[in-house]
Design goal:
The chain is α/β, with parallel strands linked by helices. It has nine helices and 17 strands.
Length: 382
C-alpha cells in the first residue's frame, strides 16, 4: 500500500467478484446506489471448466466467461469495478450520531414485497441493523493496495478456498471435483472415487451410489474419523474403501483422468471423483469488522445476508448453506434489495416529513444524477 493512497467514497462497496458479489453489485447499482465492486481475481467460480445448474447458461460456458460477462454488465449500469486486494477494514460511527442510535425504532421488514404480499419475518427492533433510514449509517473503511474505500454499506462475498489433498492429484475440473451437486450428473454410470477420511467423505461416497454402481472411498492412509453408525452404512453398501495412498495419476489425451495408481502397485480406473477435505473460509475481513462467526467459520447472517454488524452484509459461499451458483446469485439479490429498503429516500419517513415537509417535485427521482443519466442512456423506448 502506498504512503498516500487514493480515497474513493461510495454508497455500497462489494468485496468479491464471484457470482454472489456480482449479483449484489448489480442489484445495488440498478436500485440507485453508487456502488463499487472490488475483485482480487480467481476464486472457485473462475476455476469452473463448465457452468452447471444455471438456467439460461449453457454448459459450454466456463466460469471465467460467466464472471467476465457479469463485470461487463456492471460497468454498463454504472458500477465502478476495481482489481484490488483489501488488506484491512474498520467501521466507525460518528460521535454526533451516537445518541440517535441509542433509541432504535420499529421498521418494516425487507420481506414485505412491493406488490402488497407479506412474507413474515421477525425484526428485532433492539438490533441496530433494523434502524430506520432516519439514522445515518456508520462509515466503513476498506484499505486496498493503493486505494482506500469508504462506504455506508459493505457486502462481503469473499467465499472460501477448498482444502486440496496432497499430490499426486488429477487436474481440477478434469477428474478432481469438489461439488457433488454440481458434478455428480457428469459421472452417471461411471467409476468414481471420493477422497477423504471424514464423515462428509463417507456421506458423499454413499450419495454417489445414486448415480453409479462403482464408488471407491480413498482414505490415502489417513485413519477414518467417521462415526460407528457411518461405518455400518459403509459396510452395508457396495463401496470399496481403499486405504493405500495414491502414487500416480493417469490421464487421457484430453487431460481427463483415466486411472489412479496406488502405493501397493494396483491401478484403478476412474472417470473422476470428489475431494472432501473441508474449506478455509475467507472470513478475515468479517472478523476484523466484528461480525459474528459460526463454529465452522462461516459468517452468521439473517435471511437477507445482514451480519451482526450494522450495514455489513455477507453473501454466497462465505455464509451457511449450499455452495451453488444459483444460490449465490440469489444471496446477492436479497442483500441488494435489503440495502435498497434501508437506503431509498422515498417514501420519506413520517418523522422526516415533520422535519422537512412534503417531498417537492424537484427532489425526485431519488437516483444520483450519474446513475439516472446512465439509466436513461441504457434504455430506449422507441
Amino acid at each position: 500500500m502506498t504512503d498516500n493512497p487514493a480515497h474513493e467514497e461510495f454508497d455500497v462497496v462489494v468485496v468479491g467478484g464471484g457470482p454472489a458479489g456480482l449479483s449484489a453489485a448489480l442489484y445495488c447499482t440498478r436500485l440507485g446506489n453508487q456502488t463499487a465492486l472490488i475483485n482480487r481475481g480467481g476464486g472457485r467460480a473462475a476455476m469452473m471448466q463448465d457452468v452447471h445448474n444455471v438456467i439460461g447458461i449453457t454448459e459450454e460456458t466456463a466460469g471465467k466467461e460467466l464472471l467476465s460477462t457479469g463485470v461487463e454488465q456492471l460497468r454498463e449500469y454504472g458500477c465502478t469495478v476495481y482489481r484490488d486486494v483489501i488488506s484491512s477494514c474498520s467501521t466507525e460511527t460518528p460521535a454526533s450520531e451516537s445518541e440517535s442510535k441509542s433509541a432504535p425504532t420499529e421498521t418494516r421488514s425487507e420481506s414485505d414485497s412491493e406488490d402488497g404480499t407479506n412474507s413474515t419475518t421477525d425484526i428485532d427492533t433492539s438490533n441496530p441493523n433494523t434502524l430506520d433510514n432516519t439514522t445515518a449509517p456508520p462509515q466503513i473503511t476498506l484499505s486496498g493496495t493503493e486505494t482506500t474505500y469508504t462506504a455506508d454499506y459493505v457486502v462481503l462475498a469473499t467465499g472460501f478456498t477448498d482444502v486440496r489433498p496432497d499430490p499426486p492429484l488429477p487436474r481440477t475440473g478434469r477428474g478432481l471435483h469438489y461439488c457433488l451437486h454440481c458434478d455428480a450428473y457428469m459421472f452417471i454410470d461411471e467409476p468414481v472415487y471420493v477422497m477423504g477420511s471424514s464423515e462428509s467423505a463417507a456421506h458423499v461416497a454413499a450419495i454417489m451410489l445414486n448415480f453409479t454402481d462403482t464408488v471407491d472411498l480413498l482414505t490415502r492412509g489417513d485413519p477414518p474419523t467417521w462415526s460407528d453408525d457411518t461405518d455400518t452404512v459403509l459396510k452395508t453398501h457396495p463401496i470399496d474403501i481403499i486405504h493405500e495412498d495414491v502414487s500416480g495419476v493417469q490421464n487421457g489425451a484430453d487431460g481427463w483422468l483415466t486411472a489412479l495408481e496406488f502405493e501397493d502397485g494396483t491401478t484403478r480406473e476412474y472417470t473422476g471423483g470428489f475431494a472432501m477435505y473441508g474449506a478455509d473460509y475467507n472470513n478475515g475481513l468479517a472478523n476484523e469488522l466484528g461480525c459474528e462467526l459460526n463454529d465452522d467459520g462461516t459468517v452468521a447472517v439473517d435471511d437477507h445476508g445482514q451480519t451482526s454488524v450494522e450495514n455489513v452484509y455477507a453473501v454466497g459461499d462465505l455464509t451457511p448453506g449450499h455452495n451453488q451458483v444459483p444460490i449465490a446469485l440469489a444471496d446477492g439479490a436479497k442483500a441488494g434489495i435489503s440495502i435498497h429498503w434501508q437506503r431509498r429516500p422515498f417514501p420519506r419517513d413520517l418523522d422526516l416529513l415533520d422535519e422537512l415537509g412534503p417531498v417537492r417535485a424537484e427532489e425526485v427521482p431519488g437516483l444520483p444524477d450519474e446513475l439516472l443519466e446512465r439509466a436513461i442512456e441504457f434504455h430506449t423506448y422507441d
